[in-house]
Design brief:
Structural class: alpha/beta
Oligomer: single chain
Helix content: 25-40%
Distance between the termini: 50 Å
Low-confidence stretches: none
Largest sheet: 8 strands, mixed
Number of helices: 11
């Protein structure tokens, strides 16, 4: 793909409706639920085609498969609270393990569905693939069917900012081979770096209590999740919590740059701790700043309009 072709595919889609799928490790943290709910509340702009349950492994899941299964169940819980039962038939299980090498995909219902949908799109009408987890499912689809690269734009939340001292970011190190596939394949890619950029998108306890807890059952669930989790490790009177994954949805709603600033860069090679910057690499889009107040306001106003209390 030439630089001009890549620039064209990486342009902000504007106000036109676009087809999207989302790959989410929904049970891993307390922010994926916010992102999925925010996406569901924008059907006029974001035409959700499928939801993929991504693998993760940490204190909440002893294996990648368990993490994926728990995420699959959590997706249905969010859909029920959001009164979005129409999407229950397009939820797919993702990989049951991470990539074991750079060349061998993990075949799953999610990767196969992504291939099928991507092949029905085109460079002029791409499928937007929102990744807010380890990139296993997306990378597996690319490895199985490289032709899909010209028909999709991947918006991936992961890795750290180039200037950031903290480089071991969760979504990246969970599956470094998958992340490297995204950056090396030449697929049109938008990166939202976690440490150094997205970490500044946070909400406070008082904001949650004032704006979300009273709103509706979905908002109560989202806010309560955050408050309960932070209370397990913080004893401060005032605190804030990063709601990372909402920013990946917001890139597609970034009219006039009101939610974030980004730029075209040459794609680096991600490592477990840092990046390499070879010459003559393809272009990608790199988010460098989040407009926190504008996006928090949009998030709360959008979620508060949903299901009745």
């Amino acid at each position: 793909m030439t630089d001009r072709q890549m620039e064209k595919m990486l342009e902000f889609p504007g106000n036109r409706p676009v087809d999207v799928v989302i790959d989410t490790d929904t049970f891993n943290e307390v922010d994926d639920q916010f992102a999925l709910a925010y996406l569901l509340r924008h059907p006029e702009r974001l035409k959700l085609q499928a939801i993929y349950a991504a693998p993760f492994c940490n204190e909440k899941a002893a294996s990648a498969q368990e993490g994926m299964e728990k995420s699959y169940e959590e997706i249905y819980k969010v859909l029920e609270l959001a009164e979005a039962s129409a999407y229950q038939g397009c939820v797919y299980k993702g990989a049951d393990r991470f990539l074991e090498d750079p060349d061998t995909p993990v075949v799953s219902d999610a990767s196969l569905d992504l291939i099928r949908r991507a092949m029905a799109h085109s460079p002029e009408n791409p499928l937007y693939v929102i990744g807010i987890a380890a990139a296993t499912d997306i990378a597996s689809a690319i490895l199985q069917q490289p032709e899909i690269q010209g028909n999709i734009v991947v918006i991936w939340l992961g890795g750290s900012a180039y200037h950031c001292m903290e480089q071991e970011e969760f979504n990246l190190i969970e599956d470094i081979f998958a992340a490297q596939t995204l950056f090396n394949s030449g697929v049109p890619l938008v990166q939202l770096p976690c440490w150094g950029v997205v970490e500044h998108f946070n909400v406070s306890k008082s904001e949650l209590e004032q704006h979300l807890l009273p709103a509706n059952p979905l908002c109560r669930y989202l806010a309560s999740n955050v408050i309960q989790e932070v209370n397990t490790y913080s004893h401060d009177l005032c605190w804030s919590k990063t709601i990372w994954d909402v920013t990946a949805i917001a890139w597609l709603l970034n009219d006039g740059g009101r939610f974030m600033e980004d730029q075209l860069v040459r794609a680096p090679v991600p490592l477990r701790a840092g990046y390499q910057f070879p010459k003559d690499r393809h272009l990608m889009r790199y988010v460098r700043h989040i407009q926190r107040d504008a996006l928090v306001s949009s998030l709360f106003q959008t979620l508060g309009k949903g299901a009745k209390s």
